[in-house]
Design goal:
single chain, Mg_chelatse_chII-like_cat_dom, ATP binding, nucleotide-binding, about 35% helix, about 20% strand, 21 helices, vWFA_dom_sf, Mg-protoporphyrin IX chelatase, globular, 4 domains
Amino acid sequence: MKQIYPFAAIVGQEQLKQALLLCAVDPSIGGVLIRGDKGSAKSTAARGLAAILPPIRRVPGCAFNCDPASPLPECSCCQGEHAVAEDAAVPFVNLPLGASEDRVLGSLDFEQALKQARQAFKPGLLANAHRGLLYIDEVNLLADHLVDVLLDVAAMGVNTVQREGLSISHPARITLLGTMNQEEGELRPQLLDRFGLMVDVAAPRDAAIRSEVVRRRLAFEADPLAFAARWQAEGSALQEQIRQAQAMLASVTVSDHLFDFISQLCCEFEVASLRADIVLHKAARALAALDGRAQVSAEDIRTAAMLVLPHRRRRKPFEQSGLDQDKLDELTQQAQNPPPPASPADSPASDDQQAGDRQDKPTEDSKDEPAQPDNGGEQVFAARAPQDIGTIRLASHSSDSEASGRRSTVLNARRGHSVRAVPNAQPQALALDATLRHAIQRNPAEFAVTRADLHDKVRTAKQGNLIVLVVDASGSMAAQQRMEQVKGTVLSLLQDAYQRRDQIAVIAFRGRQAELVLPPTRQVEQAEQALHALPTGGRTPLPHALQLAASTLGRQGAQGLSPLLVLLSDGRANVALGEDHADPWQQSLQLAGELADAAIPALVLDTEQAYVKLGRARQLAEAMRAEYLPCEQLSSEQLTITIQARLG
């Protein structure tokens, strides 16, 4: 058996260890999400927690991890006459990123089907993790169909399997432990909210602490058993502390004014989910229990708030998570020393007056900064505040993508959520359970599988997307400060891409040529930074931009990503490719036609605002067979743009 690095031997990372201990005391908190750089002890701490948890009672051999006090009726192990419960280690189950849905949910027991010609359920990872820990490394990379499964189980505490002749439900009360590196993409918001606590970790910056980490790690690798023995006493003490805290948790109370303080914190920090109030209450009680106190203090709530609220705050897509420490300290101080009840003469100002006072103060979201001159006659315009534009949907007919994404649904994908099984004498993905069930039903007396029994799995998946934003930054965009609107529009598109974890590339064109400002990436924050710094000025090399967009999309085509080209321009091309005597507008139309022939879905946002309009952006859209929209119509009207992905 592989030796686990002792939890007590972890150097530093006090907030991380505290969050894990809170979930050990009260598993209903929901788990811990650990975000941080590579090599910051994320996995080490998660795995070490299981070794110090007090044991649970279970019947040996039970695949459902039933509670002996209320065993599952379908569990033959716990329902047997000789079932005797004993102490056992808390389950620690690793969910691999590439796990199949059958492996996670459970499936037909093929051994019993083949030997006994009858249907029986084989429990999956969710059953194995019941009353224990489900660990997911790099949880932000988990496939969408598995995320959907986890959301259902986390919400209900029950795993229900109903498909292909099987119908069973079993308890699945699990504590989620997830690790992730934000450089590889964000976590789906619905799953993020299911993690009760969240901790950001980083490698220590203090040389003495780093050296101690290295010393202990090398000592562990040299002799794991001896190293574990050195920390046995500290581990046993932590286990006893958890046991005592679990025993006294039910008796820990929260005073009325601290109940109000919890809700006040959630309101002050703009937390939308009511789950935050509940988890904050549970975490504060667990903190008091760990400390051996029967009464929650304001400081307990403050400490818990640092773990519960940051990832639930209502924030803009590019805003960093976190809490205002000064504000949190001030509110905590007020809760520790509540003011006496106010008399009628001391009644606060009316809501209208307070609202007026707030309106007099400048806001951080104000984007009305004056344009700043740049070298060479260029200007840098600030972006207008982004609007909620709703959703851009790609209606794709492709059926062979393996990429996992958010925007485009693909039927008959090679990987993904299995929705049904269909008869197929030459299946691409054999549905064993449906095949065996058909063979059993066809001839129960003489069980045999023939080609007529074969079934194929039908899967649905989400297809990844690459959005190439082509932004006109020529001098015409400076007129009437149109670049402010263009940048604000791009930020709105980036919000949609952020929520769906699309890959983003940004091409800007001005002067004599187009430039790939940002190569394809999932880090849309980089696109936002590049956009804010983008200068405006010079001529309009539109043909260069369309040519660069085509080559960028072509290089990425082999990655199985569904492309989307978004062009923001007035279409007034005046710089040609190659020879100076060529017509840049005709070149633009020709390149637009080539994009259409390549079946590239596209959206043209017309930025033209002149009194006399040439309508060239609309002509470009027609040549590209793209959807056309004036820029000003992309507003807060919850517009849904559906772009049909064509086949060449």
